[in-house]
Protein: 2-dehydropantoate 2-reductase
Amino acid sequence: MRFLFVGAGAIGGYFGGRLVQKGEDVTFLVRSTKQKQLEDEGLAIKSVHGDFQTPVRTITYGEKAEPFDCIIIAVKAYHLPQVMMDLTPFVGEQTMILPLLNGYKHFGILQQHFGAEKVLGGLCYIETTLGSNGAIIQSSSFHSIVFGEWAGGESERTQKLLSHLDKAGFTVILSSDIQHEVWQKYIFVASLSGITTLMDSSVGPILASSTARTIYEQLLNEIVSIAQSAGMPVGADMVTATMQKMDSVLPEFTSSMHRDMLKHLPVEAEHLHGALLAMAVSGQVVYPILETVYARLKIYENVNDMR
Structure:
């Protein structure tokens, strides 16, 4: 199976690198500057699960290649419009597209552009970042990909994909209810990124403050309420399950969005929090904490654009 990873950053580089280490046929679609760095230095992973460095195969935008069997998209949502245009030459009749982005909105966008039958449901759990020298630094015990047919169930093609992703040094789960899995993560990420950026803090101090904890619980309830009202696959236990997960993380844990803000990088405000507010029934219910989070992020974006 021929894999194309869109991006060789913290997430795509990690999972793609592990597949290279296993011996799978992997190509990275990267910008010309990244291509040169990878040609000169190779792909380097520094991980609690073992370090690894290797040469990798790359192509850059505008280069030609035959369609790939599986394209894994591991970029930020604000890059997606350009990525879809760049990917079109590499998508064939049998190509599977597996997005690992956070959120929900992008699935519909990808399905509309490439065709619903080509797009799988997918997500990942990992804590990773890029070091100053370009090495991928992976620091969490968890490093997993969850995927499945968007309509549910299993298929011959997802079983085949599972066989190629399996035994590559990370956890892989084939889900028969991937939309539920997507929403489970979306709610956790949206509430986590919302509260950590609003409070400008890691999780520990937030949960240690009774006032901040209450605000987080209200934010979580607002997000779950929107999802349930929109008919999304979100069970009655979602608030409790998400609170338990939040309580289980290390005090120094924070969201990638919070880390991006500290570095003055772009954030996925529209894709994560704006999309939730757009899903809400206008005028019927107010969501004061989520609206505050969204306003905070939009102000950050406006100020950051002027830097």
Q: What stands out?
A: Strands lie at 2-6, 25-30, 43-47, 52-54, 57-60, 68-73, 91-99, 121-130, 136-148, 171-174. The longest strand covers residues 136-148. The mean pLDDT is 95. The radius of gyration is 19 Å.
